[in-house]
Write a structure and sequence with these properties.
The structure is a homodimer. The first copy, chain A, is an alpha/beta fold. In chain A, about 40% of the residues lie in helices and about 15% in strands. Chain A has eleven helices and eleven strands. The longest helix of chain A has 17 residues. The N and C termini of chain A lie far apart (about 65 Å). At the A-B interface, helix 4, helix 5, strand 2 and helix 10 of A face helix 4, helix 5, strand 2 and helix 10 of B. The first copy, chain A, binds a DNA duplex (16 and 16 nucleotides) through helix 2 and helix 4.
Chain lengths: ~350, ~350
Amino acid sequence: MAKVRMQDVAAHAGVSTRTVSNVVNDYVHVSPAMRERVQRSLDELGYKMDYVARGLKSGRTGFIALAVPTLAGPYFGELAEAVVHAAAGRSLTVLVEVTGGDLETELRIVRGGLTNLADGVLLSALALPLNSDDQPPPDFPLVLLGEHRPGRNLDQVCIDNIAAARTAVQHLIEGGYRRIAIIGADIGETGRLRYEGYRQALAEAGIAPPEALPLQLRDGNRAGGMAVVESMFSARMLVPDAIFAFNDEVAIGAMRGLSAHGLRVPDDVAVIGIDNIVEDAYTTPPLSSVAPDLPALAERALDLLDEQSQRQLQPRAPRQEFTSFRLVVRDSSRPPETGTSP
Amino acid sequence: MAKVRMQDVAAHAGVSTRTVSNVVNDYVHVSPAMRERVQRSLDELGYKMDYVARGLKSGRTGFIALAVPTLAGPYFGELAEAVVHAAAGRSLTVLVEVTGGDLETELRIVRGGLTNLADGVLLSALALPLNSDDQPPPDFPLVLLGEHRPGRNLDQVCIDNIAAARTAVQHLIEGGYRRIAIIGADIGETGRLRYEGYRQALAEAGIAPPEALPLQLRDGNRAGGMAVVESMFSARMLVPDAIFAFNDEVAIGAMRGLSAHGLRVPDDVAVIGIDNIVEDAYTTPPLSSVAPDLPALAERALDLLDEQSQRQLQPRAPRQEFTSFRLVVRDSSRPPETGTSP
DNA sequence: ATGAAAGCGCTAACAA
DNA sequence: TTGTTAGCGCTTTCAT
């Protein structure tokens, strides 16, 4: 069964390709009779649109691309779901590419590696150099998603990392915790921002930060979080009474490390992370977190993509937008006095 | 900065587009001098290949598509990583589409919705009707990934679900557990197969299955697993001494439900799942599981895609291949006598 | 080793 | 309302 082209359908129905195209694309000015006739041929021959060919001509494909560092961890999967859902509301299909946090891959994407394939690109960058203002702005709709900030010449939507971190740490302080450690301050720009929020919260409360943890956090995942806690014990450090983790995965790894050493959460050490991944509600104890508004983030990102498609010609100043977040308190950060939920 | 076409480069270098194409595609018969000259123009003008246009003509895009029901849960994310990794070894880029387990979307894909965009499609189907043998075979490389079995006219690679389930249940039996419940026997074809393995293991050991759990598992996720356990308590059923869950997410939900009712794992109830997601090593207690060999699965799937591209003309009998799995024992299924790991 | 030119399947000006 | 036709950017026969 060879490929059925529009021309084949046109021949079969005794009309021109123009008419077939009109029918396929639900063009308004087609007589019902004609539509009926063409539709019959369409069905009979089993015609399937070649979206690539259409894209070549029309410049629009109906796809948008989402590039994320990894899908192995939960956060980007949940982000992807939010984007898929938001895109579906606009009749857009999402294609996800995994970059591996690889600089070369991220650069390829910023330089248009997905253009013509997708009408717009959402990129969660990890490795992209921060000061890339010298790079020419991309000539296709591109929005940066999430916490990285590679230069100031690209649209971006993310949560206010400083505020989010400060909220988390303030919550710990309000719970009476004083020796509050941070894990992951060294993870790229996001880590820097979250450290700043941490620092501000402590400063506001007049608390001195405890001594820094000995091991740097290599990867923002469970294994990394656990390793940092292990290093804390092997360095015989004074154990903090609370930990603010770079993200929930790290927090979960840290909790595992603590419990492996016989420490209870939150009685001995309180823990809080960021991202509010689904898993948080099922850890032991359930993990407190700061929840970014993923649906809103996705919607805003698509809005910006839209905007960029419109003003392709007359570029405007790049935007950085924040979406809201909220504190989600679970047992991992509830001070002992308060008791746990029923 | 308008779009730079091959023609522009050709003009700039004073050659034909043929030559530019040759240089770009590393064609052998190009004189070093010519290559040098064209390359200079390429760089100078900042040429970027339009992969869509190339795909239109050549029929190959360098992309393969992976369609999964969801990315919100951990399993398909980890599967996607495996596919991305395997594909990278073959200079293929993976584009992931989320189907939502939606029948309409799955049908669109089987009918070629991603053709011309991707050189081949890997589909993890959920809703696809089982007896779709009447459907004409797809005219593009397509391999089914994972546990579903929609008819016998498509290539498929998955683990042997019956054997995997039997292995898990045999492990529980060897641990001395007798009242072994299953959660998720009702989740589609996969559930049916895993139930069969469960049944076989019990039969081999001469154990009668305990009374069925009152609530059907709606979704194969944590919330579903927890809900089933809750229903077990509200129905005042005799609590089993071990649970074999449809997958690890369900197992994790079940563990949460058990601990919410004051039952300890594995002392009161042992739990085992399937998938061996990363999270398993960090749950409390760490969750035993059956681990599919994801890298092997991905490689075999790509092999089959390759094979299909070759014999486009002369179709061969569809294949169903199994990839190996192994039992991963962690604390959640270690009988009390045995003690826990150091 | 390189050039000229015919499409890949579709859309959209331009015509009628 | 529908037909005709010129490309979209690229690859690839056929020439040279």
